[in-house]
């Protein structure tokens, strides 16, 4: 079978050394078969192992191959649609539960890093940067909203204060969240995989699930083996393909593009981001950036609907970087890559159960780093019979994209064009 390596990226080039993992070539039995070794799958596996389950993880390529190993590396709280939007949609009781969970993913990440001594360049502090007065007004209400749910590590930044944290003159202000922050995302995934194995979990790489046989004891088939389990957790997200047809119609893979500069040196790096916080702006089609452990700038943005790989990523992203930091005009770009995330029409994650024993979580819509860690805990709780938090997510309303799979890409691209125009015009 073909060996799928990591796509070229700064993260793959600077990943911690790990042992090779075998492909499944046998028939095995387990309590829980997890499909996908990204954050959702690894988080689920860890919580289940800590609670005494036997766990087998199937990964089509390598641990963290998808969005978990290619994202911007930012720990951003809440969901892609904030708690007030959820409240209007589902009412106060369900919103209260979801609101209480909105800040848990970041805490889980820090607990994992500490408990399992994961080396992934963790830095505290994330900034939401406002380009317009309207965006600043939104941040002021967001602060009040988050504080209502007990989240207090927030500081509004006026124009003078935001200049102290980011050397970019496009911003009128911002909000600093000290419980936000950033990590080397692939090294976080690799560290979590090592933690899974330290607890007796087994991870098979290069072992795509090609078919799920549903029934009392469901079976996940791979090209050369199969796993019979009491439960299956489907955690393939944007890389699931058509394995579970019911999940494909309600979501759409989208690509985001990232570039990484050559090392900038301490002085230049510190002049850009003196406190080493990560930053994302408040546009609908947002830009995000941060420094790496070896003082490069990682800059991402743009969305490609339908997840085609654009021909020249640097040509798309470098102008955005230079608009923020014209002082980098002579700096070389060492890495450029794209990765897929899964978009839902509501921009909220899809969580549920198929029959009695197949569970899934998908569709983080660009807010995956923290949410996936929470999802793993919520799925593990449901398998242990504690379903209240699982049900709060499972009961969120979801809709197929208009026109089905054929029209979902042009439909979403049209929406993005509209919001991109609003960003440009400052609405």
TrEMBL record:
Q: Which Gene3D superfamilies match?
A: D-Amino Acid Oxidase, subunit A, domain 2, FAD/NAD(P)-binding domain
What EC designation does it have? Answer: 1.4.3.-
Record-level GO cellular component terms: cytoplasm
Q: Any idea which GO molecular function terms this record carries?
A: oxidoreductase activity
Span of the secretion signal?
Answer: none
Q: Provide the organism lineage as a comma list.
A: Bacteria, Pseudomonadati, Pseudomonadota, Gammaproteobacteria, Pseudomonadales
- Native organism is Pseudomonas moraviensis
Swiss-Prot/TrEMBL keywords: Oxidoreductase
Give me the segments passing through the membrane: none
The name this protein carries in UniProt is Gamma-glutamylputrescine oxidase
Please state every residue range assigned to the domain named FAD dependent oxidoreductase.
31-381
